[in-house]
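Proteins fold reproducibly. Look at a sample protein:
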Amino acid sequence: MRLLLRRAAFYLFTAWAAITINFFLPRMLKGDPVSAYLQKNQGRISPEAADALRTLFGLDSDKSLAQQYADYWVLLFSGDLGRSFSHGLAPVTEVIGVALPWTVGLVGIATVLSFLLGTTLGTLVGWFRGGRGDVIVPVATFFSAVPYFWMGLIAIAVFATGLGWFPASHAYSKGTSPSLSLEFIGDVVVHGTLPALTVVLASLGGWVLGMRNMMITVLDEDYVTVAQAKGLSRRRVVFAYAARNAVLPQLSSFALALGFIVGGTLVMELVFSYPGVGKLLLDATTAKDYPLMQGLFLVITLTVLVANLLADVAYAVLDPRTRQGES
């Protein structure tokens, strides 16, 4: 409990710092979001409407910076992240809410599958080191070294254009209305299979290599030798003793990977024309849509912090030495 409270206090402070930076950063830039929006709509917005926009975005010159900061926190707690200039002044929460499920659903599942598959293969390759399974490491590393956009284009050329097994782009067929029907879900799965497989192949090598190296290190420890001398089954020695300790460094990397799921895989979304948060952030940056950029930055930052907090908890559960060191 003491460890959990310390970690929670640290991450709460980090979240406060991130939110504060998110508030001050646009105000440190030249101009402001409303001025940029007015320049694109010269002659179509009255001065009264411009003043209303500044009040809406907390940039009212009649209020002090401290009052604007306090109002910003009030809006955050009410779930108001502002309005997106590039989406017809739609609420930022709605714009992000439309793109977020596509990124989390595709990149999230692909990341989890890559971690589980890579960790399992790394465990077996490390245990049976020197055997035929070692060929998995250079093969997986090769796919990780290939530039992702090149891998994606090759996958489209072979499996979409050549064989016709999967669609080449988009999240679902054109003309289809999103719904919870089995037909639509199947269409989404078919469209997401090819980009998901490329994400798994691109990230598999790191998980395999990291777990294999840690397994080789852990297998020289005394507690593994004692477990084998006690006559425990091979499966129990591998997974309950060796792999349980070897996977600990992997958890930190996995937490970072989970946190950055929300950021999306921008290259993947561009190659496959997939609607996601990564492409949304690129479009917001291109359009200088500061409210949307702020909202995306805030969501990504908080997601990374939550993922790391969960990794710290899992680390403490798996490794009692962590709890003893904090006590």
In short: The mean pLDDT is 78. The chain has 15 helices and two strands.
